[in-house]
Specification:
about 325 residues; TIM Barrel; eight-stranded parallel sheet
Length: about 325
Amino acid sequence: MGRRDLLTTVIGSYPFPGWLEYATGHLEEFGEADIEEMRNDAVISAVHDQLAAGLDVITDGEQTRYDFNLSFYGRLEGISGKPFSPRRFGPPAHDQRGKYAVTGPIRSEHGLGAVAEFRRLVQIAGTAGPVLKASVPGPYTLSGRIDAPDRWKITEQLLPVVQRELEALVAAGCTEITLDEPSMSCYAHREDPRRFVEIFNETVRPVRGLCRLSTHLCFGNYKGRAVGPRQYAPLFPAFLGLTVDEIHLEMASREFSELELIRPIAERGIDVALGVIDVKSYYIETPDDVAKRVARCLEFAPANQLAFAPDCGLSQTARWAARQKLNNMVAGVRQV
């Protein structure tokens, strides 16, 4: 599939409008027609901000999800309907994200909902403008919110569920899909990275060659906090075996540490999307900042294999800041 040099893109999520934040905590006050209207309006808002910035690739901002993946658990059978949280008070951190108990074989009779999200995006954004991208959490990342002694066994149960979702997205006309696996980079320091590669490649096997596939490898961003050692070294060179068209790396929040890793990725024939916007910081990067970062990346990989994005999804960043960051990111890339 053809692409132009120095693409600008996003990972998936975008901040909720303030009114949607309020509404999600008071759903009992609304009827189903009200809720459907809010879903559409929220996606319209996210699409508007991305189009106004001038991005080459956009998403629906994951406006109809709770967090980037938590909504999916409500679509799974074989787990408890309500998560339990080990800690509810004190500074926000990942241990406040509830876990689900296993009640039986894990499956999903009606899919994960990503296809409906994509169809809504097509209806709102059309197909004549930027590329429309869908993002689906991978089975290993999804397994992290399920309480079980063997995470790999849960991952294996989730794998066919995610596979069917990817196949359904392709059947719906989606040409760009991110299989989002941040948990792989969060836990690579204590697991065999080759096992991650095997799981990932098996998950995408049915759609390989039928769409442009990417993966997002970061270190966690719940409430703007990481959850693992922020080093990519444990993943490589094993992750050069991923059957993807593009690998996204978190760079801005890490002061572009390990930037040299993009050279062997590009030499392997895999495009690289670089995080040039720090979603954990409220410093608003200027276009000149972004242009300098892009120039550094060009020292290690050719322009036709590079894309630029925020480090992670923008859902944990205030919308006013997210909007300015995206505008300046596109402006900086265009300078180069």
